[in-house]
Write a structure and sequence with these properties.
338 residues, alpha+beta, six-stranded antiparallel beta sheet, 10 helices, 12 strands, 42% helix
């Protein structure tokens, strides 16, 4: 990404010129060198700049032997290969061409990446405010989320923005929080600070679920990544999310934000991983709560199925399940929650 940033700056510096990338040059002795950027005038084919970008911890990246021959020793090269385009066969050296070595410090680069990620995130959120507010959602910038609150539920569209391999990546999730289910969960296990989720998954998983005719089967698969680097990417992503919101997300929210829907979605196939809450131990706890509150006549059988499946579950969900099961069987009545 450091090389891409440098290329972008060079393109801005030479707006009327071509910037060719990863161009190969042959020395007279048969060895080769590759340049990150070559600036050329398409009218005259004159090479106006040869740039090499080096990314290192302290900003002192080492040149390869071929790069030293060209940039330090001044040995000429003949440009070759597909990336040279109309410069193929042209001889250049630092005697007749401006050269530049761009050093980027990774410590400063990481700081800059963090700043850029924050700016791009804020730009994306700002661009989506009109889209979501039209449907009654309010923004929570601290949580990078849009929320629509009703008496019985909270519908959430949120973002997880992170840096990986020098790329700014966005994942987005939709969540439905049913107040009665989650409040009872908290009261039974006694942990008020832990985040709970009734239904939820990656937006792309939910979109695929709604497109898929065989909706009973779900397999967690690697998903495409949303990468953003500039304002154009923000604009494209805003339009994409807007389309998803109107075509899929609102449909999902409006259809499944009830205890009856949660009971049906999570308990129809209790042994299968569910797209609606793919964290199976959490799903098991939510599922028996929904079944009991909804007076599901199959409640006891569901508890037995989940109990068997939860034998190897990790904490805290294993203990949660035991506490919830015992409370629902021994203490819960339709009026006990109120």
């Amino acid at each position: 990404l450091g090389e891409k940033l440098t290329t972008g700056k060079i393109e801005a510096e030479f707006p009327d010129k071509d910037v060719l990338n990863q161009v190969t040059g042959n020395f007279d002795d048969g060895t080769r060198v590759r340049f990150d950027d070559i600036v050329a005038d398409p009218k005259t084919t004159k090479v106006e700049l040869v740039n090499e970008t080096k990314v290192s911890k302290n900003g002192d990246g080492k040149l390869s032997s071929g790069q030293k021959k060209f940039f330090i020793d001044g040995k000429p090269v003949t440009l070759t290969g597909k990336n040279a385009e109309y410069l193929k066969g042209k001889s250049i050296s630092k005697e007749n061409t401006q050269t530049r070595i761009t050093n980027i410090r990774t410590d400063l680069w990481k700081k800059r990446m963090k700043t850029e990620a924050s700016l791009l995130k804020n730009n994306l959120l700002d661009s989506l405010i009109p889209v979501f507010s039209k449907y009654g959602f309010q923004i929570n910038k601290k949580e990078s989320a849009f929320k629509r609150v009703s008496k019985d539920s909270i519908q959430i569209f949120d973002f997880f923005i992170y840096k990986k391999n020098n790329q700014i990546t966005i994942k987005s999730f939709i969540k439905i929080k049913i107040t009665k289910i989650e409040d009872l969960y908290r009261r039974i296990v006694g942990d008020k600070d832990r985040p709970y989720m009734t239904l939820g998954n990656n937006v792309l998983d939910i979109v695929e679920y709604q497109k898929n005719e065989d909706k009973d089967k779900f397999e967690k698969k690697p998903l495409p990544k949303w990468l953003i680097e500039n304002a154009e990417d923000v604009s494209i992503l805003t339009k994409l999310i807007s389309n998803y919101l109107e075509d899929f997300i609102l449909v999902y929210f409006n259809k499944f934000s009830s205890i009856q829907s949660v009971d049906r979605l999570l308990n129809e196939n209790p042994k299968e991983i569910s797209v609606h809450n793919y964290i199976y131990p959490l799903r098991s706890c939510i599922a028996i709560l929904a079944a009991k509150i909804n007076s599901n006549e199959n409640f006891i059988n569901l508890v037995k199925i989940y109990e068997e499946e939860m034998k190897n579950a990790e904490e805290p969900y294993k203990s949660d399940f035991i506490k919830i099961k015992e409370y629902l069987i021994n203490n819960y009545t339709n009026d006990s929650y109120n």
